[in-house]
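SAMPLE LOG
Freezer: B-3
Tube label: C17
Construct: single chain, 168 aa
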Amino acid sequence: MDNKSIYQFNIHKLNGEEISLSEYKNKVLFIVNTASQCGFTPQLKELATLKAELAGKDFEILAFPSNDFGGQEPLDGEAIAVFCENFGANYPIFQKIRVRGSYADPLYKFLADKKENGNVGSAPRWNFHKYLIDRNGHVVDFYYPFTKPNSSKVRRKIDRLLTTASNQ
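STRUCTURE (predicted):
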């Protein structure tokens, strides 16, 4: 098992079902911590647009609601799903988790720690912090909340990763 890959982690869907991130092997992933009551919440729609523009390609967005910043995610479970559907969410939304500090979910501890993931050292400082994952499950970049999901900088990097083959 590649200890620099996100495929070593299990996560929980909103319905509580546990899945392995290895289910996303050979896909380029965009991992985002979300919140329903944040000034950046309109990015939920931008994420949906990005996903639609890349339909048919090996690309997926994984949304992780978090209440770590300003109590901006008061919703739970199905209420989160319904809220996100109002923004056209066409990507998986997982159970609400902690994304920073000593109580952070193991996935987010890994994403934020360069010693762990081998490439990126950036913990979320607010909602809508984004991580870009290559086809091999490696963290290759991150974007601060103010970087829109459909910005040319993000799109160029995603397009480049989509044209790169997996080594698995």
